[in-house]
Each structure stands twice: as C-alpha cells, then as structure tokens.
Amino acid sequence: MNTPFLAERIDGKGFAADLVERLADDVRDLQARTGITPGLAVVLVGEDPASAVYVSAKHRQTLAVGMQSFVHRLPASTSQAELMDLLAQLNAASEVNGILVQLPLPAHLDSNAVINAIDPDKDVDGFHILNAGRLATGQDALVPCTPLGCLLMLKDRLGSLSGLNAVVVGKSNIVGKPMAQLLMAENCTVAVAHSKTRDVPALCRSADILVVAVGRPELVKGDWIKPGAVVIDVGINRIERDGRSRIVGDVAFAEAGHAAAITPVPGGVGPMTIACLLANTVTAFKRQHPLVTQPAAAAV
Ligand code: GUN
Questions:
Q1: pLDDT given for residue 2 in this prediction
Q2: Can you state the subunit structure given in the record (predicted)?
C-alpha cells in the first residue's frame, strides 16, 4: 500500500536566502556605523576535493554579503608550526573578525591543538574548547554552524521546543554534541544515539524531534520515525542508484511521509550551514566592536 507523503518539506534553501539577505543589510549598517568591513579568514590545508568545494562556496558567499574574505590555501605538507604561525597572524589581524580552519586536516596535524590556537572570540566555527564549554554551561558562545542552522529551522517550525523529546543520532564534536547542548538549552529532553546504542530504532521512535548526523545513506527508515515528528537530516551522501550518481541524506526520505516536517537533501540543512557561518562572523564582529555596535547602557 502506498501511503501519501504528507510531511512538510522544510525549505532550508529559502530560509538561508532570507537569513543571508538580512545579514547583507546588517553588514551595510555596520560599515556605515564603524567604517569597517567585517572579514572572514578560511584556512584550507591540502587538496581534499570536498573541502575545496566547501571553501570556495564560503568565499563566494562571504563576498556576496559584502564582507571581506581571506582564503589561505596551504599545501598538505604544511607543518604544525607553520599552521600555528598563520593562526597567530590571523588572531592579531584587525581586519579578520572570524577564523575557520576547514576540517578534516591532514593526519600529521593535531586538529585539537589547531582549533584551540584560534582566538575564541574569532572562532566562528564554535569548536574552540572555550566556546564548547560556554555552550555547555549556558554562557554566551559562538555556536557551531550546522547545529545552529538546525535549531533555527526547528524553532521556526515549532516555536517553543520546551518539554519535547529530542533524539540526536550521531555524537560528533561538529554536529551531534553541540546539537544536543542546544536542544537541552531549549528545555528538550535529549537522548544521543551512536554506534554502541542498543536499540536505535526504538529510541528514534520516542522522538518528537529527530536530528540525524551520521553520514550513513538512508540509515533511518520510515518505521523509526514517530508520526508527527519533525525530522532534521544533516547527512549529505553521494550514492549510485539506477546507474546515476545522487545525493541522499541519512534518512530514507521517501519513507518519512508521516512526519510532520522533514528537511530534504539537498536543499535542507546544507544551505543553512554557510548562512550561519556568516551570521557568526557578524556576531563576532559586533562583540569585537561593542561600543559602536551595541546600544549604550542605560545611565544608572
Ligand atoms: N568540515 C565539515 N564541516 C565543517 C565545519 O562545519 N567546519 C569546519 N571547519 N570544517 C568542517
């Protein structure tokens, strides 16, 4: 029996386009008030083709909102000391408000040391241990872009998330863990599933909000999804099907018609990630220029 596909498709592409338009206005306003153009530096080490595509997209979109973009492409043979030197220069550069080192790094480099060498106030990825700690303890943090984009779409669709059961599938530092922290901060009851979880389908079936970020094509089947759930699919997987190359998510989209809403792949979470990176750069700029970008405190 074919059940009708009733789930709303959450339009991440349109949502990101709106956000980017508002950011472009914000950037113009900041320039007018400060005489300074916000700037984002992106560092790419090596020739990973997917990373090169992401970095080019970040460069294009940074320029498109009127910000400065500084892309540093380094050879795969770059040493830890050379990368640390570059980060020290970028930390000190006043025209650079945000710094992102594209991951993964070549295996000989220590990613944690690299991330923690970025000035936390310029850490627009939100991966620095200080930002992770701030997020975990409810303090003002720069928040990782992909989970931030997921949260914005969830709040847009659901309003308050308070009291809802949320299941996050995947416990990466980039998505799963910060996603769980953000949902907890919204007063969700949060469970995180991973490769050692005993019964992932049963846990997923308890979720009012299901966020999947594991990088396994169509892992989550229709009968793992509770009717009326909101599903956020972070996966972007290239597969061969019927002799054609296709991009699919971590959720079997065609089986999810009984969800209330689901992000499609492509066109769901993906476009929100870069939009949130630009938003974080504007946030970082404002925090670095508090006297000219924030209303004066009321006289006491
Ligand atoms: N590689 C895959 N996703 C990301 C991301 O959000 N930030 C960085 N720096 N690298 C990534």
A1: 66
A2: Homodimer.
The helix (H) or strand (E) run that includes residue 68 is strand 68-74
Asked whether the domain spanning 144-271 has the same topology as the one spanning 35-128, the reply is: yes
Name, in order, each residue with C-beta under 8 angstroms of 139's C-beta and a sequence gap of 6 or more: 133
Which pLDDT tens digit goes with each residue over 240-296? Answer: 999 999 999 999 999 999 999 999 999 999 999 999 999 999 999 999 999 777 655
> Residues near ligand 1 with C-beta < 6 Å?
100-103, 125, 145-146, 174
- The answer to whether residue 125 is catalytic is yes
Q: How far apart are CA 44 and CA 135, in angstroms?
A: 26
Q: CATH number of the domain at 35-128, please?
A: 3.40.50.10860
Burial of 227 (0-12, 13-18, 19+ CB in 10 A): exposed
Q: Is the pLDDT at 121 greater than 80, yes or no? A: yes
- 15-26 b/e (C-beta count within 10 Å ≥ 16 → b): bbeebbeebbeb
CB atoms near residue 120 (< 10 Å):
19
Cα–Cα distance, 232 to 168 (Å, whole number): 9
List the chain domain ranges. 35-128, 144-271
Residue with CA nearest ligand 1 atom 11: 103
Residue 131 CA to ligand 1 centre (angstroms): 15
Superfamily name with CATH number, domain 144-271: NAD(P)-binding Rossmann-like Domain (3.40.50.720)
Per residue in 35-91, pLDDT (tens digit) is: 999 999 999 999 999 999 999 999 999 999 999 999 999 999 999 999 999 999 999
